[in-house]
Every structure is written in C-alpha cells, then in structure tokens.
Amino acid sequence: MPMTGLGYTTHNQPSLDSAGILPRDAKDIAVREWHRLTDDLARVRAEIAELRSQEHALEAQVEAWNVILSAGGSGTNSDGDVSESHATEDNATLATPQESADAVVDLLREIGEPMHYSLIYDTLRSRGMEVRGKNPPSVLLARFFGDARLERVGQGTYQIKAAEEVQENE
C-alpha cells in the first residue's frame, strides 16, 4: 500500500534484515529520502521567515498610514488613542516631521550605507530624538517615507539617493 507525504509517494518501505541493518539499496533510498526531507524542511522554514518579514513590513506600513490619517484628524486615531501630534509632556522636546526627515537624511549620509527604519529609529533615539506614537519607529517611517532625498532598497530599508536623482525629482 503506498504511503503519501508532502508531495511524494513511497512504496514498500525498506525493512531491516535479521541483524537490524538496512540492505544497501534501502540505505541509499533512506539517505536520499532524508536529504529530500531536510531540503523540504529548510525550504519551508525559509518561506516562513520570508512571510514573517512581509508581515512585519505590512504592519509597519499600516501603522505608518494610521499615523498619517490620525495626524490630520481630531487628535485621536481609530482606537481613540491620542495622536502623536497632540501627545506632549511637560518640557518634552518632540521632533517635527521635517526635523525627523532631516535627521534621517543626516544619519544615512553619516553612516554611508542603507539602514532598516527600526535601526534608524533606535540610533536617532539614542542621540536624543523623541518620536511619539503607538509604534514610534513606524511614526518616524511615516515622516520620511516620501522624502525625495531617500530611496527604499529593501523591505523597510532606506538609503540616500544619488545626488543627480534628487535634483531630477525636485
């Protein structure tokens, strides 16, 4: 009776001989099957990792749009939370959207290589920039997302555009 698995069918599973050793042909089959299964497992794990990455990127984009939509509204977002533009504490210094975008551009020029927006946020935060909201890295992303001086080079990863590209877009 054939046995089925992840897209394959096997007949007559190998059996051990009286000494508990697989016959040579059966051992070759078992080794090939083991390699196939480990390859399948690695492929599935890679697909899961890619899907998780896509999930995080989409969550960040949704959060960025939540911030954009709430900034022009009544001061609260759809969850009733105070929007970032209205959330202040005594003596708190918050970066404006333009200051945030300028700081991102300055940082990327200083670093000289692409960075993920969450690392950009962490670096600027460690330097004293305060960005508020439900998800501050996404708030920062919303502030520099459309900046003509920057380009997206990967999921959530940005770099400075070449000087000639920036001049063409202005």
TrEMBL record:
It comes from the Eukaryota. Keywords: Coiled coil, Transcription. One of its GO terms (biological process) is regulation of DNA-templated transcription. Residues 34-61 form a coiled coil. InterPro entries: Asxl_HARE-HTH. Residues 98-163 form the HTH HARE-type domain. This is HTH HARE-type domain-containing protein. It comes from Geodia barretti. The lineage of its organism: Eukaryota, Metazoa, Porifera, Demospongiae, Heteroscleromorpha.
